[in-house]
Design a protein that fits this description.
The complex is a heterodimer of chains A (about 450) and B (about 475). Chain A contains 13 helices and 17 strands. Chain A has 2 domains: about 110 residues, Alpha-Beta Complex (Aspartate Aminotransferase, domain 1); about 260 residues, Aspartate Aminotransferase, domain 2, CATH 3.40.640. Chain A is globular. The model of chain A has no long low-confidence stretch (mean pLDDT about 95). In chain A, strand 13 and strand 14 form a beta hairpin. With about 450 residues, chain A is an alpha/beta fold. Chain A is about 35% helix and about 15% strand. In chain A, helix 3 runs antiparallel to helix 11 and helix 6 packs across helix 7. By secondary structure, chain B is α/β, with parallel strands linked by helices. Chain B has a domain of about 260 residues: 3-Layer(aba) Sandwich (Aspartate Aminotransferase, domain 2). In chain B, about 35% of the residues lie in helices and about 10% in strands. In chain B, helix 10 links the parallel strand 5 and strand 6. The longest helix of chain B is centred in the last third of the chain and has 37 residues. The relative contact order of chain B is 0.13. The chains are: A alpha/beta (about 450), B alpha/beta (about 475). The interface between A and B is large, with 206 and 207 residues. Chain B: This is Probable glycine dehydrogenase (decarboxylating) subunit 2. Chain B: The glycine cleavage system is composed of four proteins: P, T, L and H. In this organism, the P 'protein' is a heterodimer of two subunits. Chain B: GO terms for molecular function: glycine binding; glycine dehydrogenase (decarboxylating) activity; pyridoxal phosphate binding. Chain B: Its EC number is 1.4.4.2. Chain B: Belongs to the GcvP family. C-terminal subunit subfamily.
């Protein structure tokens, strides 16, 4: 079998072995004790040639229903948004995707500057002073924020609204076990965090309070009220935020947030079955030296030219080892680049327009569903998602919708027992009037 | 902005320029202001750039030219396995039925994706000799933490609450001790011996009733195989601890040895290293974790399972450490790795390790005359030189690295591992030709000669890059972490 990624010829090999002074490559493995040597053949599939493998995998991909083959109203943290064609063209420049972390600034100015621009865009959207070069995803960024609040305040209790994404809450709980944090969940009142219950939970051991804006149920949480509550507290105000919504909504910084995190999947990153997406982490100047992950800073070279470097590395694992602020090493740089291109493409006006389109179209669906007798159950202001009571199991509805070419919404019964027959429906700018009309009609017909 | 500066995207911005093409509204708009309290409506728009499509393309194309990737030239960055990233993998990852599927779709509608994931899990288990694999962790460091949390859960399930320490060699990656801390353990260092491998006496000294685990990279970060692995496994297991395998260096041993057979209980892999998921300028990666049968019940939920040819997620795992990452891991990267494994098969992967090791040994033997080689036995896929001799001439390893830039090379990893003075860690990978290796070796020899004859030449390098050496001190002292229009 030929292997196109392996360039050494037999002649090369012989010459190299002579230089090394051994008879065969086998001799180079003489330090592997016989007891642990593997002599069989790995039990995996045989090597496959390019055309055959490409065909097989293309066939496999066609076994999946996709957001392109069907019309989707599924969101719940992952969205089908407009991706400008240029995004993939830029991230396909192999100088970007075949590079690694820019340790050598002289030959990595492209990546470093792109990250510096990303950091700036995240600061602009969130209103925060500092943003890092990216995290794995929104939920792990949130877990890092919780841990940071605990180490900074030297307290152990984290209060989380149950309107925060269920998987974010699960990830926070997993990360909390290391430092031994106590996680307290606060219920909701009509889809918004129960502010009174939250207030009652805050005590001298509270390190951080976490809400999502807009929240998992699509509602715009009352950050102004929470700000009043938290202003006089030492506990940190941590907000997880869909950055697209911030094109229209007041940024969390205006409400005194200490840490703002989220996922930039909404900007130029395909859903790809949930990953890789791209977490962001933004905070105040005060916490700048506690930020997890890479930071890029501006400086000058010996000739006084502006340039960029990785900076404040004394926070990081490769320098501080067990005292580092986080164990994160690789991040989501390429996806941060994709989001930067998408954000540049939208610009100052486009981002507002895109957020606005989402809000308009979601309201149109709400109205059409209502006409069909399917009621939206939450009354508060919302972004692009709504909770509707379909009076039947969501799985059953979704199966019937699938037959009509739709991917229905998220089944809230999975995580919210109080919403046993409720569907979380997302509407993005990508849905046309015809699609919304047809979906509402189908829902109404099935709902009967 | 100074004339000589390369512009930021914001510096191309002009009021009223656009580059978007959003769908139409098509309906009569709703009055949002009636419904939303004005305090939540943004007053000042975020300062995103206002640029045209061509401006964006020119900007990022120019930036890409200011960046060195594997496709630009040799990238022997030790411990990072900068091998060729196959283009076919990129095409597969962009197939619509993979790139545009949603994690909350009914599993019946994503059987193709699940089949791929299941096959990948099984293949990785076979390659590592482990019982079961999770694809959830996003990267190597997250895999380390995941593995340690499982080890922690295992000890706790045995009522063994006093195992608070994780042993790491002095040559370990920084993520190892950092992950131990995040998992709630205390990191303890074990020393290396004169052969560059773990000192068994010191291991016996630090191991004890408080040992939760030993984390080991094998071959280690010096590129040396831990020959005493069988004894080490015995020492740690006898003390009741578990053995953790950092898979950063798996590229050296595929088909030759498996962590599972060496006695490791938990293994993480870096799919962006060994299995060609591209490095992306820093990520995304993917860090699957394999475990022994004994630890399988602690794997993160949900677990991808197969029954009668149908794939589904098993949530009913009461002993699981929980979820470590939203959804199902970095699917897009896992898909690239799967494509690579299917391209190579068992035969190809073994050749990968054979040539990775051959290349490293060849370079090491040719370079050891000019550069100090602290450990002289055969190396595996990488080796570490010391710049001690050159330092005596006033030329530091940093200078050598900067001089390499002038010849179009990405330098090796420098000043790591920490137990080698002026370290230069070289990992050629198997995808480089002999001509490339020879070219790099000749350049390294030339730089060594320059250090003897004209040290200033090396000390002041680089000369041919788009910027010269950067003022990193000021960057850290007076951090500027974002663009401000005023400044």
């Amino acid at each position: 079998m030929e292997f196109r990624y392996l360039p050494m010829t037999d002649e090369d090999k012989q010459e190299m072995l002579r230089t090394i002074g051994v008879e065969s490559t086998e001799a180079l493995f003489s330090d592997v004790p016989e007891k642990v040597r593997f002599h069989g053949e790995l039990n995996i599939k045989k090597p496959t040639n390019e055309p055959a493998l490409l065909k097989e995998l293309a066939d496999l991909s066609r076994q999946n229903v996709s957001l392109k083959s069907h019309v989707s109203f599924l969101g719940a943290g992952v969205y089908d948004h407009y991706i400008p064609s240029i995004v993939d063209h830029v991230i396909s420049r192999s100088e970007f995707y075949t590079a690694y972390t820019p340790y050598q600034p002289e030959i990595s100015q492209g990546e470093l500057q792109a990250i510096f621009e990303f950091q700036t865009m995240i600061c602009e959207l969130t209103g925060m002073d500092v943003a890092n070069s990216s995290m794995y995803d929104g939920p792990t960024a949130l877990a890092e924020a919780a841990n940071l609040s605990a180490s900074q305040t030297k307290r152990k209790k984290i209060i989380v609204a149950d309107t925060v994404h269920p998987e974010s809450r699960q990830v926070i709980a997993s990360y909390a076990k290391g430092p031994g944090l106590e996680i307290v969940e606060i219920g909701h009142k009509e889809g918004m965090v129960d502010v009174e219950a939250l207030q009652a939970e805050i005590d001298d051991n509270t390190a951080g309070v976490i809400v999502q804006y807009p929240n998992f149920l699509g509602q715009i949480e009352p950050l102004a009220e929470l700000q009043q509550l938290l202003e006089k507290e030492k506990a940190m105000f941590i907000v997880s935020s869909n950055p697209l919504a911030l094109g229209y909504l007041t940024p969390p910084a205006a409400f005194g947030a200490d840490i703002v995190v989220g996922d930039t999947q909404v900007f130029g990153i395909p859903t790809q079955f949930g990953g890789p997406h791209c977490g962001y982490f933004a905070t105040t100047k005060k916490l700048m030296r506690k930020v997890p992950g890479r930071l890029v800073g501006q400086t000058t070279d010996e000739d006084g030219r502006r340039g960029f470097v990785l900076t404040l590395q004394a926070r990081e694992q490769h320098i501080r080892r067990d005292k580092a602020t986080s164990n994160i090493c690789s991040n989501q740089a390429l996806n941060a680049l994709a989001s930067s291109v998408a954000m540049s493409s939208l610009g100052k006006q486009g981002i507002k327009k895109m957020a606005w389109l989402n809000m308009q179209k979601a309201r149109y669906l709400r109205q059409r569903l209502k006409e069909q007798g399917v009621e939206s159950v939450l009354r508060g202001p919302f972004f692009n998602e709504l909770v509707v009571d379909i009076k039947m199991p969501v799985a059953e509805m979704n199966e019937r919708l699938l037959n009509k070419g739709f991917i229905g919404g998220y089944d809230l019964a999975k995580t919210y027992p109080e919403f046993a027959t409720h569907m979380l429906v997302a509407v993005t700018e990508n849905r046309s009037k015809d699609e919304i009309d047809a979906f509402a009609k189908e829902m109404g017909d099935i709902h009967g | 902005m100074d004339k000589q500066d390369f512009p930021l995207i914001f510096e191309h911005s002009k009021l009223g320029r656009t580059s978007y093409s959003l769908p139409e509204l098509e309906i009569e708009g709703f009055n949002l202001k009636e419904e939303i309290d004005p305090v939540y409506i943004r007053e000042e728009a975020p300062e995103l750039p206002e640029v045209s499509e061509l401006q964006i393309i020119r900007h990022y194309t120019a930036l890409s030219k200011r960046n060195h990737g594997v496709d630009s030239g040799f990238y022997p960055l030790g411990s990072c396995t900068m091998k060729y990233n196959p283009k076919m993998n990129e095409d597969v990852a962009r197939l619509e039925g993979f790139s545009h599927i949603h994690p909350y779709q009914d599993t019946k509608t994503v059987q193709g994706a699940l089949k791929m994931m299941y096959d990948l899990q099984t293949s990785l288990a076979a390659i590592t000799g482990m019982h079961e694999v999770t694809l959830q962790p996003a990267a190597g460091a997250q895999g380390e933490w995941t593995g340690l949390m499982m080890i922690r859960a295992y000890h706790e399930a045995n009522g063994d609450w006093n195992r608070t320490k994780v042993i790491v060699p002095d040559s370990a990656h920084g993520t190892n001790p950092a992950s131990a801390t995040v998992a709630g353990f205390e990191a303890v260092t074990v020393k290396s011996n004169e052969r560059g491998t773990v000192d068994l006496q010191d291991l016996k000294r630090v191991v004890g009733e408080d040992t939760a685990a030993l984390m080991l990279t094998n071959p280690n970060t010096l590129g040396l195989f831990e020959e005493n692995i069988v004894e080490m496994a015995e020492i740690v297991h006898q003390a009741g601890g578990k053995l953790y395998y950092d898979g950063a260096n798996l590229n050296a041993i595929m088909g030759y040895a498996r962590p599972g057979d060496m006695g490791f209980d938990v293994v993480h892999l870096n799919l962006h290293k060994t299995f060609t998921g591209p490095h992306g300028g820093g990520g995304p990666g993917s860090g699957p974790v394999g475990v022994s049968e004994e630890l399988a019940r602690f794997l993160p939920k949900p677990i991808l399972t197969e029954s009668n040819g149908e794939y589904y997620f098993d949530e009913d795992r009461p002993d699981s450490i929980g979820r470590v990452k939203p959804y199902f891991g970095n699917f897009g990267i896992n898909l690239r790795a799967y494509t690579y494994i299917r391209t190579m098969g068992a035969e190809g992967l073994k050749k990968v390790s054979e040539f990775a090791v051959l290349n490293a040994n060849y370079m090491m033997r040719r370079l050891q005359e000019e550069y100090e080689l602290p450990y002289t036995q055969h190396c595996k896929h990488e080796f570490v030189l010391s710049g001690k001799r050159q330092k005596k001439l006033g030329v530091r390893t940093l200078d050598i690295a900067k001089r390499l830039l002038d010849f179009g090379y990405h330098p090796p990893t420098i000043y790591f591992p920490l137990n080698v003075e002026e370290a230069l860690m070289v990992e050629p990978t198997e995808t480089e030709s002999k001509e490339t290796l020879d070219g790099f070796i000749d350049t390294m020899i030339q730089i060594s000669n320059e250090a003897k004859e004209n040290p200033e030449l090396v000390q002041e390098a680089p000369y041919h890059t788009v910027v010269k050496r950067m003022d990193e001190t000021t960057a850290a002292r007076k951090p500027i972490l974002r663009y401000n229009r005023e400044s």
